[in-house]
């Protein structure tokens, strides 16, 4: 099989590897498409994945072969693979917190993933994709489940106002999910002109350039001085993490969806004096079925998110290098696998 193998910071190579063989409880998949996640780009920049891993966890595939002890799946079934496959046994799993599983399998992170022509996966991690979700849109199930998990964990209620910091796929999906959930208004802050345009397409009520506008004043103007009830931090960079507690109203909540690989200083005096809540949210394995339903019904606009579709052979120059640039032009890159 042809696979994208992580070799360290700034190094991803295409390599021919033996086709995987499914064991008990596993299936062999022919991968059709795989999205590049922001965490993949972070690993490309920093080297935080284990060298030798086949990357990719935003997967659309077809079942080729089922291993022993697999029921309910057959060759030809069209599926996505959960980016978080919990053990089901640890304390967190037993208490309904599967995203915190102590023995989690994460395709493309700690086991080989789907940026390849073939992969094997535990059958318990599969979700069936309806025909109404095409191969490209199916790559959004994982990031959409992340956002749904964060919204579900937050105190958000219909009629609230929110600000999303960062107009990448997570930020754009956050805008759409909050609008679907009945937000009074959702604003987006993003320095990239390309991603600001995507934010308008995604339905943001106002889009700000944080490099050219004073966010505090703009929010004050738009809300009549009431401020936003929620700030969803979707960029995972120190600047937005530092700003978030100061941009939410008194008694508001900051929901951190972005993953930042470096320590961040924060103004905890503001957090205390304004009684601001800060909530972390990680992955969304339990939200996969809901994410698939939203996409199947057309309630999430995939066209506002997916900006580039490239073949696997162009993964590095047109995918990772483009997304890792200081001012990335792509918003979401989906990689198509060659037929094998």
Report on the architecture of this protein.
- The chain is 28% helix and 25% strand.
- It is an alpha/beta fold.
- Strand 11, helix 8 and strand 12 form a beta-alpha-beta unit.
- The mean pLDDT is 95.
What does the main sheet amount to?
7 strands, mixed
What does the overall shape look like?
Answer: globular
How many beta strands in the DSSP annotation? 15
Ends apart, CA distance between termini: 8 Å
Overall mean pLDDT: 95
The structure class reads alpha/beta
Number of helices: 11
> What is the N-to-C succession of helices and strands?
EEEHEEHEEHHEHEHEHEHEHEHEHE
Specify Rg, calculated over alpha carbons: 20 Å
The stretches of 5 or more residues where confidence is low (pLDDT under 50) are none
Give the helix proportion (percent range).
25-40%
* Proportion of residues in β-strands: 15-25%
What is this entry, summarized?
The protein has 340 residues and is α/β, with parallel strands linked by helices.
Give a quick set of tags describing it:
alpha/beta; seven-stranded mixed sheet; 25% strand
Write the layout of secondary structure elements.
Elements: E1 2-8, E2 11-16, E3 26-35, H1 38-46, E4 58-66, E5 78-81, H2 91-94, E6 118-122, E7 126-128, H3 135-138, H4 141-153, E8 161-165, H5 169-180, E9 185-189, H6 193-202, E10 206-208, H7 215-223, E11 228-233, H8 238-247, E12 248-256, H9 268-273, E13 277-280, H10 288-296, E14 308-311, H11 315-323, E15 333-336
Parallel strand pairs: 8-9, 8-11, 9-10, 11-12, 12-13, 14-15
Antiparallel strand pairs: 1-2, 3-4, 3-6, 3-15, 4-5, 5-7
């Amino acid at each position: 099989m042809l696979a994208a193998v992580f070799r360290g910071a700034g190094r991803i190579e295409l390599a021919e590897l033996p086709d995987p063989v499914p064991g008990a409880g596993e299936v062999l998949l022919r991968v059709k498409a795989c999205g590049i996640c922001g965490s993949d780009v972070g690993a490309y920049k920093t080297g935080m994945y284990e060298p030798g891993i086949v990357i990719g966890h935003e997967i659309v595939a077809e079942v080729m072969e089922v291993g022993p002890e697999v029921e309910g799946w057959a060759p030809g079934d069209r599926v996505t693979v959960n980016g978080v496959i919990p053990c089901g046994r640890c304390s967190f799993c037993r208490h309904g917190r599967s995203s915190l599983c102590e023995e989690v399998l994460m395709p493309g992170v700690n086991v080989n993933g789907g940026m390849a022509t073939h992969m094997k996966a535990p059958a318990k991690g599969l979700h069936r994709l309806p025909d109404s979700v095409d191969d490209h849109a199916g790559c959004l199930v994982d990031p959409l489940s992340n956002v749904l998990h964060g919204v579900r964990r937050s105190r958000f209620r219909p009629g609230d106002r929110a600000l999303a910091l960062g107009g990448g796929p997570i930020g754009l999906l956050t805008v759409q999910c909050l609008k679907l959930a009945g937000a009074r208004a959702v604003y987006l802050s993003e320095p990239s002109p390309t991603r600001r345009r995507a934010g308008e397409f995604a339905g943001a009520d106002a889009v700000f350039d944080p490099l050219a506008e004073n966010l505090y004043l703009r929010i004050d103007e738009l809300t009549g001085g009431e401020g936003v009830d929620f700030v969803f931090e979707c960029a995972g960079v120190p600047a937005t993490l530092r700003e978030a507690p100061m941009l939410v109203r008194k008694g508001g909540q900051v929901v951190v969806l972005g993953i930042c690989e470096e320590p961040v200083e924060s103004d905890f005096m503001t957090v205390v004096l304004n009684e601001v809540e800060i909530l972390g949210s990680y992955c969304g394995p339990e939200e996969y079925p809901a994410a698939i339903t939203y996409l199947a019904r057309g309630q999430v606009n995939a066209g506002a998110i997916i900006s580039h579709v490239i073949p696997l052979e162009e993964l590095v120059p047109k995918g990772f290098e483009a997304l890792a640039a200081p001012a990335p032009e792509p918003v979401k890159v989906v990689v198509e696998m060659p037929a094998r």
